[in-house]
Specification:
The complex is a heterodimer of chains A (210) and B (225).
Chain A (H helix, E strand, L loop, with lengths): L16 H10 L12 E10 L2 E10 L6 H5 L7 E7 L3 H5 L1 H11 L5 E7 L11 H11 L2 E4 L8 H17 L12 E3 L3 E10 L12
Parallel strand pairs in A: 2-7, 3-4, 3-7, 4-5
Antiparallel strand pairs in A: 1-2, 6-7
Chain B lengths: L1 E5 L12 H7 L6 H7 L11 E9 L7 E2 L2 E2 L1 E8 L7 E11 L20 E10 L3 E7 L4 E6 L4 E7 L2 H18 L8 E5 L33
Classes of the chains: A alpha/beta (210), B alpha+beta (225).
Chain lengths: 210, 225
């Protein structure tokens, strides 16, 4: 399977936020990854509607002990990717809590995309795709299943979130002069902040780091 | 030896040396990290006071770690939550990245005239200080040890012009003293002695600490087994 335990923490398994970021920014998958502490930053230039847009991505810690720290980063974000692991039902069950947190501490216009990660592990699936779709529909989210390992839908997830933000800018929903909305207009392009949030998963024995 | 006055039960809040005092002692020219933050791309840190220095990553023996034939350089900034807050809150880590062709014509470029126009500074990590332990690794070599809550340790050597190195390192020593949790609740003048761990050659058997070849920001570098 090519999966290994997270280095330094043999029993902690993440949903794959850091791996999604790495796949999007560096186009590579790293099976062994340290637990995220605080925030890790990533950025990538994309083109939407012929305009250069710099996506500024904040990869936040998913563990419960870092929760209060994570809350303070929603406010300056234009978008968020809420990530669960399709092979672990508990990460899906915790989505409501994460979503409430995000909505409570963020800009009311923040675009939220729901991501079911690790779609390559079909044989270990615990959450049906239809369940993810239903949750997204019920809460007004965009939905996509991804695999940070195979890169399936990773580009699309970030770019579709950015497109949704861009459309909101065009519609005048976002005040582009207020940088608290997570949007900064440069001479040639906009910089857009997006946050990765999701369940880290508890003390879970077994392989799989992302 | 550094003297630190601690007042009453307020602990940190009443420290005679505050982050703002240390920052004000830094040169009035805005550092590269501060310039980057002031551009507004990292909204929560735009107006945060920052004390910053450049470091090169070394191993426990104090030898420079060359990754891709390049020394691993990192800019570290200790920041407060706001200009009105005297207490340090978080650590920012930044490194230089190549400027993409699309970006080279924008205002996101690194302003420093001295540096190559093909590189720009980018923020790589933010670590709340409660998850970080900063200590002196070698006073003589101006080296610090940064230990994260996950057990990883990194060794950093201060990068500064020779005439500024000692003075700048003294400010880092002050900061380390400031970050130490206060155990004495009474109004006492506490002298904090900097414990110099020197250049210890012993290998730590713990896999968590085997970070001899782990880069502080290049997460693709794996620890030596």
């Amino acid at each position: 399977m090519g999966e290994r335990r997270r280095s330094g923490s043999p029993y902690l398994v993440g949903v794959g936020k850091s791996c999604l970021l790495l796949q999007f920014t560096d186009k590579r998958f790293q099976p062994v990854h340290d637990l995220t502490i605080g925030v890790e930053f990533g950025a990538r230039m994309i083109t939407i509607d012929g305009k250069q847009i710099k996506l500024q991505i904040w990869d936040t810690a998913g563990q419960e002990s870092f929760r209060s720290i994570t809350r303070s980063y929603y406010r300056g974000a234009a978008g968020a990717l809420l990530v669960y692991d399709i092979t672990r039902r508990d990460t899906f069950n915790h989505l409501t809590t994460w979503l409430e947190d995000a909505r409570q501490h963020s800009n009311s216009n923040m675009v939220i995309m729901l991501i079911g990660n690790k779609s390559d592990l079909e044989s270990r699936r615990e959450v049906k795709k239809e369940e993810g779709e239903a949750f997204a529909r019920e809460h007004g989210l965009i939905f996509m299943e991804t695999s940070a390992k195979t890169a399936s839908n990773v580009e699309e997830a970030f770019i579709n979130t950015a497109k949704e933000i861009y459309e909101k800018i065009q519609e005048g929903v976002f005040d582009i002069n207020n940088e608290a909305n997570g949007i900064k207009i440069g001479p040639q392009h906009a910089a857009t902040n997006a946050t990765l949030a999701g369940n880290q998963g508890g003390q879970q024995a077994g392989g799989g780091c992302c | 030896m550094l003297g630190l006055t601690v007042g009453g039960s307020k602990g940190h809040g009443a420290a005679a040396v505050s982050l703002l005092t240390i920052i004000s002692s830094q040169t009035s020219i805005m550092g590269d990290l501060r310039q980057l933050l002031s551009q507004g791309e990292y909204a929560p840190f735009t107006s945060a006071p920052v004390f910053e220095s450049k470091f090169v990553q070394v191993n426990r023996r104090g030898e420079t770690m060359n990754i891709h034939k390049q020394p691993t350089c990192v800019t570290i900034g200790i920041c407060a939550t706001s200009p009105s807050s005297p207490m340090p809150y978080g650590m920012l880590l930044a490194h230089t990245v190549p400027v993409s062709p699309q970006e080279s014509v924008t205002n996101f470029q690194k302003f420093s005239e001295r540096s190559s126009q093909l590189e720009q500074l980018a923020l790589s990590r933010f670590l709340p200080l409660k998850f970080v332990e900063l200590s002196v690794h070698s006073t003589d070599n101006h080296q610090l040890m940064l230990k994260l809550v996950n057990g990883r340790s990194y060794y950093l050597e201060l990068c500064a012009p020779p005439d500024q190195q000692h003075r700048l390192f003294q400010h880092w020593l002050q900061l380390i003293s400031l970050l130490k949790p206060q155990k004495n609740p009474s109004n006492t003048n506490i002298n904090i002695r900097c414990k110099d761990s020197g250049t210890n050659h012993e290998k730590d058997p713990s896999p968590n600490n085997s970070s001899e070849n782990v880069s502080l920001w290049q997460i693709d570098i794996k620890p030596s087994s």
